[in-house]
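Interim report, section 4.2 (structural modelling).
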Amino acid sequence: MSTRFSVVSKPRPASGFPLTEIPGSTSGAISEKLVQDRYRSLSQSVSDAPKKESAATLEQKLFDALVNAKVSTSHVAMHLENEWRQRLFRQLDSLMAIEDWDASDAPLEGNSFSTFLRTILFLRPKRAPGLGMTSTGEIVAAWTRDQDRLTMEFGNADQVRWTLSRVDSGGRERAAGETYADRMEQVLAPYFPDRWFER
Amino acid sequence: MENNYGRPPITEAVVEFRLLAPVDANLVQRIGTSFNSFYPRSEDLQEIEFQIGPAGAQTRRTGLVGFKRTNVDANEIVVIKAGSLNIAQLAPYPGWDHFIERVRRDWKLWRSKTNYRDLARIGVRFLNRIDIPHGAGEVTFVPKDYVLVGPAIPEAFGDLKAYHVNAVLRSEDLRADVTLNSGTVESPLLKHSSLLLDIDIGRIEDMPKKEDDIFEFLEAVRLEKNRLFEACLTEDSRKLFL
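Predicted structure of the assembly:
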């Protein structure tokens, strides 16, 4: 017995809202589980592919990670201000530019990015953070105000590692911890996070 | 009507044109390339065949079936296959006028490349996700407080934790079928619950052939979609989109 399906061979981010998996009618071609054999740029010369294989693979991985991050963002875009979203995309484009990429680093982890989005939409900082990435592909957000700095590193399944350093009349205070995104508000409250989050 | 909301809950809007007779694979390739300037990113769509027999399951790739192309922000999508063209918009939804302008542009290009073949179906689908914040200490909610589509279940069963409803209805005015899906879905937001409201309107009879007639039909579908969408919502739901 032979049954024909269309399937997605490429794993999608573990969290986020899998709209394209909803069975349906009109967007059947989009809703169907389709093999993403590979993203590719049509402008790329096929004859260049063998000699640039490793570079092409890295480029493809970075591209996949970037598209996944942007699609994840689209799932919650109605809750993000346009300016915020556009800034985020510019940061992502810059973070994953192949020209500046160290080949030993891992591309952006979809689960980490999902935790980042969930945390940001939960805390709703008015100031956008600077973004960076760890060598393992986890996204890092940092807010700096004068000498005060708050950094969050986003892991899988809503885990957040944070460090902060602030100066007040009593001198410098440092703190660090690891918690879940939905606890960040309480965890940061003693350190008056508005100094980082307010414009 | 969707433009009246500051934060429309539309997560995906799709217009589909389906051909009566598919085009050949070479033409699909050429059509895909012709969309390059609008959608610079391309992804091959392959089909895989599963064979299940006494020796177990085997899979076999059967070939390229089309292309999915996206813009730089990955929220404008076109899917080109031998038998269909799908034009989709992910959130943020820019409004119907903007969306239908892109649909018209892509349709014109596709029709010229497919040599104006007859259509078998025209459909419009809007997927909405209603994100409902939990109140203080509250982790449950009553779906019918937000969406007036749901299952009828005797109270003896207790609290409703999850559901999915699928219904197909007829719109005689449009000579089209309306497919309605609604249910609970995983929320992408912390401390929220989410409901899906998915309205698909498709026509497979008396197919319009001329461009003006096709887009007149799409405009009529849009009005009907908006009417049905509003009919499914409660005031509490609408407040979430302001």
